[in-house]
Amino acid sequence: MGLFGMFKKKGTDGEPKKKFTRIFYVTDIHGSELCYRKFLNAADGYDTKVLILGGDVTGKFLIPVIVDQAGGKRATLHGRKQELKTDKDYSDFVSTLGVLGYYHVEISEAEFQKAQKDEAVVESIFIQEQRKRLTDWIKLADERFKDTPIKLYVSGGNDDALESLATFEEVFSDHVIPCEGKVVKVDEIHTMVSLGISNLTPWHTPREFPEEVIEERIEETVKGIDDFTNLIFNFHVPPYGHGLDMCPELDTTKDPPAPVMHGGEQAFKPAGSTAVLKAIEKYQPLLVLTGHIHESRGTVKIGRTFVVNPGSEYGEGALRGAIINLSDGKILSWQLTSG
What predicted TM-score, i.e. pTM, was given to this entire model? Predict the structure, then answer.
């Protein structure tokens, strides 16, 4: 597919073709320490100066590590109680949580019992741990990319609380650029607009909205843009009904929602956004970067627009991504990656 040369062959007139920009796009890592480190390593591995990290960037679970009066530690993970008797036990446990994208907090038995009765206390700790990890990630990127031109553009998703995403605005970085709701230049000719909200889900996540709100937000985001020839839409939710939004169908009358089975097999249905589809059809940007539906890894063309959902398997520590080579008004080549 010709991914790795900075110039294509000379034309018949002897003049070299123009340089292209290579981006590496990853989404839905949900707090996974392992996936994030792999993502940073990809800048060298895939020879790119432009990294784009889509939402959801934060993890979903907070695991209490209960410390008894004698200093002993215990925790429960996936229904299995674990006694963390040695420093290695504790270190291995924390490492496992990092791969899964989970957070942990050390608390006493009394604090644990109190927290169970006060959801606000748990939420406060959860946000604090999310912000702490994001801060560490920003600092790590600056360390890795010191004295390089590499830029890491990041936006949120529907699972990311605004209080946590604010970390990207509050912590100074030479390399990590928060881009949600902004118009940013990824190179001399390509511009990107980003939107991390989603349509309604069965899970009542922090940033999901009706389709009419998404449509309004998209219009606000692209306001003032006249030329979409080299524009990138970095929209967390995929367009409805084009194969990048197929997810398990759920019976929402049950709590928690349960899979719907047809003939003994799991039923699937499209869950993308009609507002995003409408915007793609209306504006025909060069490229659309999406995610949200982890199972729907793939690409599709909608008119002139190339749309990609690299999928996600963050829970296994596997980094799913997409390398895309852009030139003026064209997608030169692309490749879905796994690592």
Answer: 0.93
Distance CA 118, CA 169 (A): 29
pLDDT in tens, the chain (339 residues): 334 433 334 444 555 555 899 999 999 999 999 999 999 999 999 999 999 999 999 999 999 999 999 999 999 999 999 999 999 999 999 999 999 999 999 999 999 999 999 999 999 999 999 999 999 999 999 999 999 999 999 999 999 999 999 999 999 999 999 999 999 999 999 999 999 999 999 999 999 999 999 999 999 999 999 999 999 999 999 999 999 999 999 988 888 899 999 888 999 999 999 999 999 999 999 999 999 999 999 999 999 999 999 999 999 999 999 999 999 999 999 999 999
By the 8 A CB rule, do 288 and 334 touch?
Answer: no
Q: For residue 321, report the phi and psi dihedrals to the nearest 5 degrees.
A: -150, -175
Neighbours of 179 (CB within 10 A): 21
Q: With beta carbons less than 8 A apart as the criterion, state whether 186 and 21 touch.
A: yes
Q: Residue 301: how many CB atoms within 10 A of its CB?
A: 10
Sign of CA dihedral 89, 112, 36, 172: negative
Domain boundaries, the chain: 21-338
The CATH number assigned to the domain with range 21-338 reads 3.60.21.10
